[in-house]
Automatic annotation (TrEMBL):
PANTHER family the UniProt entry points to: CARBOHYDRATE DIACID REGULATOR
Lineage: Bacteria, Bacillati, Bacillota, Bacilli, Bacillales
Domain of life the protein comes from: Bacteria
All copies of domain Putative sugar diacid recognition, residue ranges: 6-133
Name of the protein described by the UniProt record: Carbohydrate diacid regulator
């Protein structure tokens, strides 16, 4: 293993905080690649040669004893029984020797931890690429490649699985979470609840977190979803919505379950008070999602043709909240922070510009379908072009 310069520098800086002595990290070529005394970085260290031959500690009692050395002690750093570097502590031998074994052991531990973390990152990225290939590839010509890769990654595709798609939002109408740091923490948070089985898979794709769970070991799927939802809100003040697909037993089934989970998620996002929706909960939503893009456009044009983008966005929010609260004026007004008379005015305005009255049962169905179509994947962008 080659220890990266940035890791070596991090190690010596941390070690100095503990013992308050200058520390060097020397690579197997006897070059100081990291030091708390920055002027020494890049220098040749003759004492390191002796450490490599002796495979043990070497004390420097005279600064002219070896090329590029100062008084102190130098010890080999091992990883998997191989010397990957030398750690040097500058100072009088009698003062620094007491730190030798401790600094040596801590350095080896930090290198091992960094290696494990890097391997975990590589494995995570490999699985992410594999899952994305399974979910998003268009043809079935490379089934053999998928099979081989699944075996190499120890991902079993022929076991009962359910795919969930989740999206995280901050509570109280704040901006959606999309920074790299937050995504990393959210990923690890969710992973804590599903890493009881190595066959449980988690990847992040855009704003969504995709979970592909082994149903042989997931005894209470809804209980698991509730636990993630409640604890994420408690610990981070974040809200999460889930879409749940049907059970699958091969790569084609996983893709179908994923598409179902995406449809379910869109409904969960529409009805924010329902933080999870299963494909089996859908009825009209299934019809909407199976419409062609042309049919969706024509329907939206029929209902919303006289609205500009700003008006449309405003009325969609009003209608979504109105539907979510089953037509309750009081609850809708409270959620939108409006006076009930202001809400009544907005509903009357929607009737005027669209020709459909949200308080009329038949017209309500027309508007409800329009909102579902508007919020379906890609429909909004197509309509606003």
């Amino acid at each position: 293993m080659i220890v990266p310069v940035n890791l070596a520098q991090e190690i010596v800086d941390r070690m100095k905080e503990i013992i308050n002595q200058d520390i060097n990290y020397i690579d197997p070529n006897c070059i100081i690649i990291a030091s708390t005394d920055r002027k020494r970085i890049g220098d040749f260290h003759g004492g390191a040669q002796v450490v490599l031959k002796k495979k043990g500690m070497v004390a420097i009692t005279d600064e002219n004893q070896f090329i590029g050395t100062r008084k102190g002690i130098n010890l080999p750093v091992y990883f998997d029984d191989n010397i990957v570097g030398i750690i040097g502590i500058t100072g009088k031998e009698e003062e620094v020797s007491k730190y030798g074994k401790i600094i040596q052991s801590m350095t080896e531990i930090l290198i091992k931890e960094a290696f494990i973390k890097e391997q975990s990152k590589i494995e995570r990225e490999s699985k992410k690429q594999f899952i994305e290939e399974v979910l998003f590839r268009i043809n079935d010509e490379d089934k053999e490649t998928i099979r081989i890769r699944s075996e190499l990654l120890n991902v079993k595709l022929d076991i009962p699985r359910v795919t969930l798609v989740a999206r995280v939002q901050q509570v109280k109408k704040r901006k959606m979470i999309d920074t790299a740091v937050n995504n990393y923490h959210i990923y690890n948070f969710i992973n804590r609840y599903i890493d009881y089985d190595q066959q449980n898979l988690l990847v992040q794709s855009g704003l969504n977190y995709i979970m592909i769970l082994n149903m042989n070991t997931t005894n209470d799927l809804i209980g698991l979803v509730k636990k993630i939802y409640e604890n994420l809100k408690h610990e981070y003040n974040l809200s999460i919505c889930f879409g749940i697909g049907s059970e699958s037993r091969d790569d084609a089934g996983i893709r179908q379950s994923f598409e179902e989970a995406k449809k379910s998620l869109m409904v969960s996002l529409l009805y924010k008070k329902r933080f999870y929706v299963s494909i089996f909960d859908l009825d009209l939503e299934l019809v909407v999602n199976d419409l062609s893009e042309k049919a969706k456009y024509n329907y939206l044009f029929k209902v919303f043709k006289y609205l500009d983008e700003e008006q449309l966005s405003s009325y969609i929010e009003v209608l979504s909240t109105y539907f979510r609260n089953n037509g309750s004026i009081m609850k809708t007004a409270d959620e939108l922070f409006l006076h009930k008379n202001t809400l009544q005015y907005k509903l009357n305005k929607i009737k005027t510009v669209t020709g459909y009255d949200p308080r009329n049962t038949r017209d309500l169905v027309v508007l409800y379908l329009a909102v579902l179509i508007y919020k379906s994947e890609g429909a909004y962008k197509t309509f606003m072009l």
